[in-house]
Amino acid sequence: MIRFRADIEGLRAVAVLLVIFDHLGFRGFHGGFIGVDVFFVISGYLITSLLAAEYAEKTTVRHGRGSISIVRFYLRRARRILPAAIAVIAAIVVGSHLLLNSLRVQQVQHDALWAALFGSNINFIRQVSDYFAADLATSSPFNHYWSLAVEEQFYFVWPVLFLMVAGRHGLRICGRRIGWRLRLALALAAIGVGSFAWSVLDTHANPASAYFSTFTRAWELALGGLIGVATTSATTIRTRQATAASLAGVGLLLAGCFVIDPDSAFPGYIALLPTLGAAFLIVAGLTNPSPLPNQLLSAAPMRFVGRISYSLYLWHWPFIVFVAARFPQESGRPSTRAAILALTFVSATVSFYVIERPFRKISISYGNGRVERFLERHDLQRLGFVVAALVSAAALATLFALARNYGQKTQNVVAISSSDVSLAKSAPRAAPAIGPTVAKRRAPTRGVRVAAYAKLLSRWQAHVRQGLAVGVLPANLQPLQRHLANVATPCNKYRLSIVEHEQECRWGNHNAVQVAAITGASHAGMWLATLKGALDPQTWALYPFSRAWCGWSGGSENVAPKEALQNRDCRALQAQTLVELKRLRVDLLILSESGVRSQQQMLDALSRFASVAKQVVVLGHTPDVLPNFTVCLRGDTDISSCKGRLSESDLSAVALERHAAALFNDPFIDTTPWFCVDLACPPVIDRTPAFTDGSHISAELAPKLIPLLRQSLVQAGAL
After folding, report:
1. Per-residue pLDDT for 382 more than 70?
2. What is the chain's percent helix, strand, coil content, to nearest 5?
3. Measured at the alpha carbon of residue 403, what is the angle toward residues 398 and 406, in degrees to the nearest 5?
């Protein structure tokens, strides 16, 4: 049995307070999320120390044949982790029904399933979540469960690897027999080095998903485990060495707090600051008397906070999210944040004494040890766990498939063909003559085409005006969840890639004389369904090139380091796209992205595209002015708060796009009047959700815009 370490209990307090202060937005704690990394190192150390102590004890009793009880280990972990975690999950689900709208409730129910299965990190990777870009008003109250999932996945695998590696008695290197501690240390070092390398690479390639990945975090747990294997309860170090290690640990943690922020490429190599800091403090406590920093960690107040740190971590985030959802204006006030902090401490204290501590005292013996002795006697413990692992993996795969559609109704969204578009016979008010500008191909009948587009737009804007008067969700859209599917393309994989398999990404006639392509950010993929309807599939072949965050004109200027890495990747993707477009000999190239960058970026991009396509058309970005339905929806049907309004900056962005296109004599299609009239933008148009998240058009609206896009392309001379 390992000895109790009061300083480690205090280190838990430091870790949890860093996280809570960061989430509450306290000044000076913008890098407080590194507290999770400190937790990982502590967990790796404690769990490995417990396993090593049990193995060493049985080695002594059984004359050299060590073992660990995997079943008993899982029972201890379940007793420690599950009661409080399940209680908070239940509280969040109940609270969501009382405080959030129906869309948020469905999100919470879906995320609750993953949290209960300790797969939240996988869930957020699937949802393409960005931990640092999360908006409190729309965040999942289970966002913090990702770290519990990482630890539980580690607990699931590590005891088996421990037993496999430690039990290899005949392993020799250079003819010398290797002890079980050294074997485990070598295994942990290999895991740590591999995971750290993967963390650095994946943080660069996929920064959003890398944050949640067990593979990018395993090295932090392995670092703690390495200390647990290399030391025992009797291990001591010299006072001078302990003091140096303790001061180094404090310095590294402070450096992490000041140097690391949400714009850092995390958890890459910079995560060494908090993890090594925690490791040094753990090592520094292996002496008596301990250094001053470790003595401060052992103080009674720190130990109390560390003792309830698990409950503090579980309760603080849902309080923050629920307050932000219900009181968005007041949630950022210092008084509100102080109240949340106080409520968190009260709830955590009650949770610890009512839930955590009673369950810790429950006996974990089973069958008077007969089952375990039978397994050990017949050497079936490992085989039994392998079978259990395979069954669990199959069950988890099944749950992955079920979770994909959890909370969705059985009725699917039915695509609406272009012939289903309903337009008013007459418009109550003439629409402004907003449409494509100068085209490269000027036909004698251009005036007729302009009039045809203006007439079509006027009829469509009648629906837009009617949408402004709608305050209650139409009956055909209830429930709303199944109507908010994004328009996605097979190529839009939300990762650093473009066309991988040409057959997968092509639409239309492969032998068509005319070739079209659309490129840009996720908005390029959003328009694909509409563009398909605007082109004749017999005479056109269409290739989409869309990336989730990389537009056709590039990334933002003057960005933080993390975004700078994305911009560099974006430039590489743009270069690859140009190569593919040139190879395809594109006749019509549509450009679409989510927002306007600098004019110089647009001009540079347009000059490059001019050499790879006969006709370039700039499809203006959709206005990003509507609140997210998950925020503005009141109850199940009230959408009175979901209207948006165009600002001067929105109009300036449109003018900038139009001007850039005109300089190259490229047609520009302004999509703003398709969604707004008199600067106002309704959330529902023609009994259809306009957007899914404020800027991406819904799957049901996309086909209704086919006539507008087709006539715009005709007017521009592109068709």
Report:
1. no
2. 60, 5, 35
3. 130
Residue 154, C-beta contacts closer than 8 angstroms, at least 6 positions apart: 43, 44, 47, 214, 218, 221
Strand pairing report for 688-689 and 684-685: antiparallel
Between the alpha carbon of residue 350 and those of residues 16, 283, 311, 656, the distances in Å are 17, 33, 9, 57
Cα–Cα distance measured from residue 16 to residue 164, given in angstroms and rounded to the nearest whole number: 34
H helix or E strand, kind and range, residue 307: helix 300-307
Average pLDDT, rounded, for the chain: 82
pLDDT at residue 555, rounded to an integer: 56
**Cβ contacts of 586 within 8 Å, gap of 6 or more:** 515, 516, 517, 543, 612, 613, 614
Whether 8 and 42 have beta carbons less than 8 Å apart is answered as yes
* Preceding omega of 301 cis (within 30 degrees of 0): no
* Contact between residue 40 and residue 151 where contact means Cβ atoms under 8 Å apart: yes
Range from 193-197, 315-319, 596-600, 639-643 carrying the lowest mean pLDDT = 596-600
CB atoms within 10 A of CB 223: 27
**7 Cβ contact partners less than 8 Å away, ≥ 6 residues apart:** 281, 285, 290, 294, 295, 297, 298
- Three-state SS letters, 636-661: CCECCCCCEECCHHHHHHHHHHHHHH
The predicted pLDDT at position 431 comes to: 31
Tell me the sheet residues that pair with 611.
none
Radius of gyration of the chain (CA): 30
- Phi, psi angles (nearest 5°) of residue 498: -120, -130
Q: Looking at the whole model, is its pTM more than 0.85?
A: no
250-255's contacts with Cβ under 8 Å and 24+ in sequence apart are 250/277, 250/281, 250/293, 251/277, 252/276, 252/277, 252/280, 253/14, 253/34, 253/38, 253/277, 253/278, 253/281
pLDDT digits (tens, 9 = 90+) for 43-99: 999 999 999 999 988 888 776 677 888 888 998 899 999 999 999 999 999 999 999
593: how many CB neighbours lie within 10 A of its CB? 27
Tell me, what's the pLDDT at 125?
87
d(C-alpha 324, C-alpha 326), whole Å: 6
Question: Helices in 62-171 by DSSP H: which ranges?
Answer: 70-99, 102-116, 120-126, 145-166
Please count the other Cβ atoms lying within 10 Å of the Cβ belonging to residue 181.
Answer: 16
Shortest CA distance to 635 belongs to which of 65, 105, 76, 62? Answer: 105
pLDDT tens-digit readout, 127-167: 766 676 667 777 899 999 999 999 999 999 999 899 888 87
